[in-house]
Amino acid sequence: MTFARSLNLTQSDTALISRCQKADIAAFNEIVGRYKGRIYNYLYRMTGNAEDAEDLTQETFVRMYTGIASFRADATLSTWLFRIAGNLCVDSFRRNKKARELTRSLDAPLPGDDENHFVTQDIPDMSQAPETVFARKELAGQIQQALQKLPPKLRSSVVLHDIEGLAYEEIAIAEGIPLGTVKSRIFNARVALRDHLKPYLQ
Amino acid sequence: MATIRDCKKIQGLLSEYVDGALPTDQTWEVDLHIASCAVCAQAAQELSRTANLLRELPKWEPSVNFEAILAKRLADDALKPRPETWFSSLADIGGRFTKWWTLPSLRPALAVGIAAVVIGPFALILSRPANLNVSTIEGNRNPITRVTPKAASDTTSLDQLLREHSAYSSSETLGDPAALVSL
Q1: Is there a single domain that holds both residue A77 and residue A12?
Q2: CATH value at residue A140
Q3: pLDDT band at A129 (very low <50, low <70, confident <90, very high)
Q4: Same structural domain for residues A124 and A98?
Q5: Residue A138: pLDDT band with limits 50, 70, 90
Q6: Into how many domains does chain A fold?
Q7: Alpha helices in A103-135 (DSSP H)
């Protein structure tokens, strides 16, 4: 039994998808267990909100379950899941756009929010408060705030690359964009993040 | 000595450079440039540190009852009515028809209906009046088929027509040239 279980744990994504397409619930659960953390973490970094991230992660797996029959081998399971999650995120941002405009905060992008020309509000210069600069939690909060200020397209590419560890080619497949666009988005995102996080880069 | 133009070109490559994703010749080009350009060297260092800050962020995990909530959500989703599409509507109509016509109580009525539809046209053809005389005008490249009522050549019908004509003529004297001559 233990041996069989260990075999299941090491089963490839392709085998799991194949089993899942035959309505094998155990295979579906295995996929959820394998990817829920990465999808949740991506969505948390995208939304900046635990509740939204949880809800969208749930929805990602519901979409995966209902659409497993249409899965094609031109993508890996991870790129497919990130694509579903990304699309759900875009839908969610569209739905919340009005509300975000009304309650603009430090976290919300400003008008004229496109991926090449964007401006953001200033964050307080934390170098003036040295006792908090090196606090890891505080730093993580500042990075999240800086991420939230990026246009969603740039944010998605840089999160997938630098946080989730996807290669440029995988991001191109997951986001359905050319490789050159992926590279320029990551470059622009890093430059913007560098400008916001300068006090922490010393 | 590095120029501003060189710096612009090199800085465009720095993000891939810090990822180690550049081809060998371009990597060598950047290496060579940043060895002599403090500005670009600092830019490369900052981009590298920015990427490292992101990589070192703590990983977040979903709630402990994630699977339980997902299972409930999937069950609810399975019970949810599907959105209407033209295809589903068509399938629905088909399904309803199938249900309806298989009802035992309606089978005799349906049989009569189908019989009427199938036999009806034949019955109509057979009961059609057989008094049409079909003649064909020859001498034309495309023969014209003319249909004349057979009744017109029938003697009884001709007598009837003549009777009607004389009755009309007698009532309308001025309209009948024969009557004018007789006056």
Answers
A1: yes
A2: 1.10.10.10
A3: low
A4: no
A5: confident
A6: 2
A7: 130-133
* Residue (of A161, A160, A154) closest to A120 by Cα position: A154
pLDDT of A168 reads 95
Could you list the residue range(s) of the whole structural domain that residue A31 is in? 1-103
List b or e across A5-34, with b for residues whose CB sees 16 or more CB atoms inside 10 angstroms: eeeeeeeebeebbebbeeeeeebbbbbbeb
Q: Please report the pLDDT score of residue B181 as a whole number.
A: 47
Residues A11 and A63 in one domain: yes
Task: Give A60-97 pLDDT, tens digit per residue.
Answer: 999 999 888 888 777 789 999 999 999 999 999 888 87
User: Quick check: A41 and B59 CB within 8 A?
Assistant: yes
In this predicted structure, the answer to whether residue B97 has a pLDDT above a threshold of 70 is: no
Q: Which of these three, A47, A70, A103, is where a domain ends?
A: A103
Beta-carbon contacts of A13 under 8 Å, excluding residues fewer than 6 positions away, are: A31, A34, A76, A77, A78
A146/chain B closest Cα distance in angstroms? 11
On whether any CB of chain B is under 8 Å from the CB of A55, the answer is: no
Residues A44 and A96 in one domain: yes
**Closest CB from A36, A162, A190 relative to B62:** A36
Task: Flag whether residue B54 sits within 8 Å of chain A, measured between CB atoms.
Answer: yes
Task: Tell me, yes or no, whether A64 and A81 share the same domain.
Answer: yes
| DSSP assignment letter at A145 | H
CA dihedral sign, ordered A176, A181, A186, A188: negative
* CATH number, domain with residue A52: 1.10.1740.10
Which among A103, A133, A156 is the end of a domain?
A: A103
Cβ contact B53–A197 (<8 Å):
yes
User: In this predicted structure, what is the pLDDT of residue A145?
Assistant: 93
pLDDT in the model for residue A199 = 86
Query: Does B182 score more than 50 pLDDT?
Result: no
CA–CA separation, A86 vs B80, rounded Å? 24
Residue A99 and residue A64 in one domain: yes
Contact A201 B50 (CB under 8 A): yes
